[in-house]
Design brief:
Elements: E1 10-13, E2 16-19, H1 24-46, H2 58-75, H3 81-95, H4 98-115, H5 123-140, H6 149-166, H7 170-191, H8 193-198, H9 203-221, E3 251-259, H10 266-274, E4 277-285, E5 288-295, H11 298-306, E6 309-318, E7 323-324, E8 349-357, H12 360-368, E9 373-376, H13 385-394, E10 397-403, H14 410-419, E11 423-426, H15 432-441, H16 448-460, E12 463-469, E13 474-476, E14 479-481, E15 486-490, E16 493-498, H17 501-512, E17 519-524, H18 530-543, E18 548-553, E19 559-565
Parallel strand pairs: 8-9, 8-10, 10-11, 17-18
Antiparallel strand pairs: 1-2, 3-5, 3-6, 4-5, 6-7, 12-15, 12-19, 13-14, 15-16, 17-19
Helix pairs in contact: 1-2, 1-3, 1-9, 2-3, 2-4, 3-4, 4-5, 4-14, 5-6, 6-7, 6-9, 7-9, 13-14, 15-16, 17-18
Length: about 575
């Protein structure tokens, strides 16, 4: 028996309230509450970072990923749990930032795959979806590591499934899942010695526990946890404003196509609108197609889209006027102001490059090496999958190489590669020096396979190091580190601890140089004066007279020096 007062999916047995199924509205409330709870506690999760470096941003990345999904869900709440799950998957996939965010988005993707076409889900269906999410998340990671968010997800999902075999009360199942998630989180230091040594639990696992707690709150109270402040304030600004006179294509056009059949020719549609603008994104996602393009001919774009199926969620912004001109569903698209047709598109060049970087000096260096699009980001500011995808789509080239230049961005770049229709190669560059070395190894006259091999091999020969400031007290590899200490890092390990950035840099170079070394490149950051950098160069030249010492102003934030030894 259903109780109208309590909402669909609830019933009473004596004084016990039982939730035996979830619909789309309930599930949406759970996701929104989970996102808000993680947002409110993301700083605490960030502080669980094993190393005391200023890029411990697991909580922030997971929060931004889930916030992107929650914001989209708020716009399109439906009664179907399958539809809400689909929005969760698609939005988190595109909003994913950092490794933790990508893993979370893949977890959501698996959940959506199981709940597809379902209006409601009972306890067994929900736990089966969670299990599918775990499997999908594990597959997304090349070398899964236990003692991380993956372990917490797997063990808590298994507990939920076991609970669902014994009762059909979703509230009880979620309670049991959270209890196991907390226990699993507490066990992570036993699985990862580095966590135990640092006296912390896994940050990604902690983020997942917060997500489950937030969802449970909405499930049991029918009210989502509220954010303590606007999440928009924490979203990184990744682009600068553009004068309206420089906007070639005036109308930012977005809509969704509900395909009339599974075999409609989406690639043909994408090719037809390619010449009508820039910043084009055409995402073919099962039964729908998401379209985004900057164009002077929104009417043409929409007319071609109608041939594929029904269109909805139409939004057209006049970027020159800086206010919205919205064409709602049912309005005549020909009412859009006519503009001159764009110039014929240039033929595509063979190769293009997109690279992640921050700091005026580093951006200039990559531009000098022929990089077409700079994706602003790096340490503590990982770009989203959508931002990387947008950069890819702007490049007028047959084959596009993406240089993540940070180990925490490679998964998001790979996810963008999978979403793009273009021929994209993600090079596994984990640092700025590796990205520059890859560009130096590139040969424009040879084929893609040979270039990919050459650049990948070149990356493996680069030894890199970073000098930064510790942001918290910790103990790592028998080194006692205090907040404010200067630390030298290479190969993911803290090698040097000191009080002077210059001295730590010299010691770090000494640990990287060997008999095969010929060039030492040092990129100094925004907190280092030119005089300090020149003094360092003089000292290195005196210490290594047989080596070429290259000094460049990188202007990067957070890191005093980035070092490359080849």
């Amino acid at each position: 028996m259903r109780c109208c007062k309590c909402g669909a999916g609830r019933r009473f047995e004596g004084e016990i309230k039982i939730i035996f199924e979830l619909d789309g509205k309930q599930f949406a409330g759970m996701i929104i509450s989970a996102s808000n709870h993680l947002y409110n506690n993301k700083t605490a999760v960030d502080k669980l970072n094993v190393f005391p470096v200023p890029d411990g941003d697991t909580g922030t990345n997971m929060s931004l990923t889930l916030c992107a999904a929650a914001d989209e869900i708020k716009k399109y709440v439906t009664a179907s749990i399958g539809d809400v799950a689909h929005t969760l998957s698609n939005a988190s996939l595109r909003g994913a930032r950092g490794n933790s965010g990508v893993i979370l988005s893949q977890f959501c993707r698996g959940i959506a795959q199981h709940l597809k076409d379902k209006n409601t889900a009972d306890a067994k269906e929900l736990t089966a979806a969670l299990e599918r999410g775990v499997q999908t998340a594990y597959k997304a990671v090349m070398r899964p590591t236990e003692g991380t968010i993956l372990t917490v997800a797997r063990e808590s999902a298994a507990a939920a499934m076991q609970s669902a075999q014994e009762n059909n009360d979703i509230e009880t199942v979620m309670h049991d899942m959270i209890e196991e998630a907390r226990k699993s989180l507490e066990r992570t230091p036993e699985l990862l010695p580095v966590l135990k040594e640092s006296g912390v639990v896994d940050s990604g696992g902690a983020g997942l526990v917060l997500i489950l707690e937030g969802a449970y709150h909405a499930l049991t109270t029918s009210e989502p946890i509220q954010t303590q402040q606007s999440s928009a304030a924490d979203a990184p600004v990744m682009a600068t404003s553009i004068p309206s006179d420089n906007i070639r294509f005036a109308y930012c056009t977005e809509f969704i196509i509900d395909k009339k059949s599974a075999d409609v020719n989406v690639k043909r549609f994408s090719g037809l609108i390619d010449a009508k603008g820039d910043c084009k994104l055409v995402i073919d996602d099962d039964e729908i197609v998401k379209v985004h393009i900057h164009t002077n001919n929104p009417g043409f774009v929409i007319e071609e889209a109608i041939k594929l199926g029904e269109i909805s969620k139409i939004k057209i912004d006049n970027m020159r006027l800086q206010h919205e001109t919205i064409i709602t569903d049912g309005q005549n698209t020909q009412d859009a102001p006519a503009q001159a047709s764009p110039a014929p598109p240039q033929s595509r060049k063979p190769y293009g490059f997109a690279a992640v970087a921050s700091g005026d000096g580093l951006v200039g260096i990559f531009k000098d090496f022929g990089v077409d699009e700079i994706i602003m980001g790096g340490q503590s500011s990982n770009p989203s999958t959508d931002e990387i995808l947008s950069a890819i789509e702007k490049i007028n080239a047959e084959c596009i190489y993406v240089l993540p230049n940070n180990k925490n961005i490679i998964l998001a770049a790979t996810q963008a590669q999978e979403l793009s229709e273009r021929d994209v190669v993600v090079l596994p560059t984990k640092s700025i020096p590796q990205g520059i070395t890859a560009l130096l190894a590139f040969l424009p006259h040879v084929g893609k396979d040979e270039n990919t091999q050459k650049m990948t091999q070149a990356i493996e020969l680069v030894r890199t190091g970073q000098v930064t400031c510790a942001v918290r007290d910790t103990s790592v590899s028998d080194k006692e580190i205090k907040t404010g200490d200067i630390i030298g890092i290479s190969d993911g390990d803290i090698k040097i601890v000191g009080s002077s950035a210059g001295d730590v840099c010299k010691q770090l170079v000494s640990s990287l140089v060997d008999d095969s070394s010929s060039v030492v490149s040092v990129f100094y950051g925004g907190d280092v004066t030119e005089q300090e950098a020149q003094t360092l160069k003089t000292d290195l030249e005196a210490a290594y007279p047989a080596l070429d010492i290259m000094l460049q102003n990188g202007g990067q934030p957070l890191y005093h020096y980035i070092i490359s030894v080849e």
